[in-house]
Amino acid sequence: MKRKIEKLGHSQEFTPLLSYTPLSGGKRLRPYLIYLFSEPLGVSKEIYLELGTAVELFHSGSLVQDDLPSLDNDDYRRGKPALHKLYGEGRALLAADYLMLYSGKIISSISLPAKLIVELMELWNETALEVIEGEFLDISISKGRPEEVEKIHRLKTASLFGFCFSSPYVCAGEVRKAISMKSAGIDFGRAFQIFDDIKDKVGSIATLGKTPGKDESQGRPSALRYMEIEEAKEYARKLYTEAIKKIEFIEARKALLEILSMIEKY
């Protein structure tokens, strides 16, 4: 993954911008989830590394967008200056576009039968469009009613997790099973976002790697607009449990239970 990222772009001027956010740290949770389901399904390492790279690049591009002054206006990401603070807003925006578009190029080039590539690309295109729509709603809706907040969470955050859960099944030729696994990934992603809302309220820049309290100060939709912290935790754990119930692999279930303790920390 690192070698592929370091070679992004076609010019010495652009490459540092493209690699900055993907190589700046982070948990790499999304590629790990793809690996977690690919291994027991017999999906080759070559395929799941390509899938994981594509998802991580897209996610990085979305973070660059998220930090822009016209969106969340954050100066830090993963404990480092946000990309636009180093290179300017225009260059950062173009880098984000490139990262998010290049992900589709990677996925379309994966070595799979044509029928499965079509299925995989349909799943990916739907996911990518949902993430962008979720971001739009996030900056367009002030505070938001519970159903609006849940819709934003589902699109902006949970959709990409749905892809991580389901894409290995598509690659393994189990397209019907991929549908239920996308649902599991959506539950996982919604839980993840609720925990993130909690961290935004009570976390610190040292633990978050970004400015805390941004959602509340900007009036952004958050689960904590209509739930107390303990209630939100309980609901997130319920969603997480529902996701795990849908997973057929024992080792994957165990790994996700371990991940829960990491996600809950703030």
From TrEMBL:
Which GO BP terms sit in this record?
A: isoprenoid biosynthetic process
Q: A single Pfam family, by name? A: polyprenyl_synt
Where on the tree of life does the source sit, at the highest rank? Bacteria
Q: Does the keyword Metal-binding apply?
A: yes
Q: Which Gene3D superfamilies does the annotation name?
A: Farnesyl Diphosphate Synthase
Q: Which GO terms describe its molecular function?
A: metal ion binding; prenyltransferase activity
Show the CDD domains listed in the entry.
Trans_IPPS_HT
Stored InterPro entries: Isoprenoid_synthase_dom_sf, Polyprenyl_synt, Polyprenyl_synt_CS
Q: Which SUPFAM superfamilies match?
A: Terpenoid synthases
Q: Which cofactor does it need?
A: Mg(2+)
Sorted UniProt keywords: Isoprene biosynthesis, Magnesium, Metal-binding, Transferase
Q: Which family does it belong to?
A: Belongs to the FPP/GGPP synthase family.
Name the UniProt record assigns to this protein: Polyprenyl synthetase
